[in-house]
Amino acid sequence: MLFNRRFPGDRMTPFVWKRLLRAVNFKPNPNKWSTKWTVGRRSVSSSKRDHEQSSYQQHSGQQQQQHHQQNQQSKGKFVRIKKKWSWKAGAGWTILSVLDWWLLAAGGWLTWRGVFLRWTPLGICMVAAAQWHLHNRELDRKGLPRTATPWQMNMYCSLPLRLMSRCWGWLADCRVPMPARPLVYGLYSTAFGVNIEEAATTDLKNYRSLAEFFTRSLKEDVRYIDPEGCIVSPCDGRVLHFGTATNCQIEQVKGISYSLEAFFGPPTWCNEQCPTFADKLKKKSPDNVLYQCIIYLAPGDYHRFHSPTVWKPELRRHFSGELLSVSPKIAKWMPGLFCLNERALYVGKWMHGFFSFTAVGATNVGSVQIYMDEKLKTNKWVGLEVGTHRPEYDELSLPSDTFLEKGELLGQFKMGSTVVLIFEAPRDFQFSLQPGQVVKLGQRLGCVGSKEDLTDDPNKIRKIIETL
To answer: Which residues pair with 353 in a beta bridge?
Structure first.
């Protein structure tokens, strides 16, 4: 009897059934339950079930519309690209999500404008890097040093280095406030190893600008001029290379050479009947040998240079070329570097024959000042034209009574650069140097055999020079 009893709910009206469902509150929980479920009894008719499903779909549609409005109101670039993913999806789906985010966040890379303006430079850089790698690998296979190709040299020369050097020169000449001078000059001294105790003025506040600090003078007793050396170092620096210069191609560093004729220009001051350019430069004897010595001045070195021996300069040539870096790394990488850069070349003679002194400009070192030559103007503005190697030069004949004594102050660089000495001497001339050696002003570079120099009698040396 009890089991056959009918419950009143079997005959519930639709209104009572709705109130019961609303009281029980059968709503889906997305964190725990599936989004697809049904609640009902067998006795519930299909019309009621359809009504419930339609009400649920309407409710979920309202939630999606509210969620869309919140996304539209929120700020930010990446909110619109919101993607639903799970840690359970695995590393593959995570990587794909990151790639999708990157591509969408970059924006415009797959458009025509993006292809021409964004991918093209990247492709050019990749092709250039590949060619650079293949060129270096080919040089390594042949056992040759890694040097620049012609297109790499043209790219390097196309940089606005002259404009940058002029801007740096203007900045270096600007007045530094006195309270900031110890800090600025102290940081520079620490970075480049400047020994301020050797300077004539040790008080950093007395230097008006960076240019004055670069070209500071030294105390009289901190450099010793060797009286017995035939040739002494004209400056502080590091020896890049030294040796003979008997061929048309001579070494600027070990394994890297430059043209002697391109460096000097036409030898209008010497005998044109000689077979080689090196023989044309000789003034005293064809049995003599041409020697060279290259000294690099680092940014922390003493930036003034002096006369390396007793000699008579007769001609000055100013080559207005490029302002490439002359650091040892660039000198090992770019052949003919000294023939490309701006340089002030002084040609003359000393007691053993031909003698030349060349001050080579470099990046941020376009200004080269020679005290005896006030007409020399370097680092001139040549416009926006870049990448052109101008072989032109201006020439000036110096007074016939011009003589320079050993250790006499000759000029100065703004920042650091390079001095190149090319001279004639007998075959028994010997250098007193080691490759890469750091030298100081007045230190002996070499001498002829065991003979002592005749610097104790300058008048006699001048007479010997005049007879050449």
So the answer is: 350
Q: Which of 289, 313, 292 is nearest to 425 (CA)?
A: 289
Contact assessment for residue 181 and residue 213, using Cβ atoms and an 8 Å cutoff: no
Mark whether 133 is an active-site residue.
Answer: no
Residue 85 has pLDDT above 50, yes or no: no
- Which residue among 320, 325, 356, 417 is the active-site one? 417
Q: Higher-confidence residue: 68 or 215?
A: 215
If DSSP states are collapsed to H, E and C, what string results for 216-251?
A: CCECCCCCCCCCCCCEECCCCEEEEEEEECCCCEEE
Predicted local distance difference test score (pLDDT) of residue 450: 60
Query: Out of 236, 301, 373, 453, which one is annotated catalytic?
Result: 236
CA 196 centroid distance within chain: 27
3-class state of residue 275 by DSSP = coil
pLDDT, tens digit (0-9, with 9 covering 90-100), for 86-116? 444 454 555 555 555 555 545 555 555 565 5
**Percent of the chain scoring above 70 in pLDDT:** 68
- Of 303, 306, 318, 352, which one is the catalytic site residue? 306
* C-alpha of 99 from chain center: 34
| Cα-based distances in Å from 437 to 19, 290, 304, 395, 456 | 101, 21, 19, 34, 28
Output the pTM of the full model: 0.70
Instruction: Reply yes or no on whether 352 is catalytic.
Output: no
DSSP state at residue 132: H
Is position 189 annotated as part of the catalytic site?
no
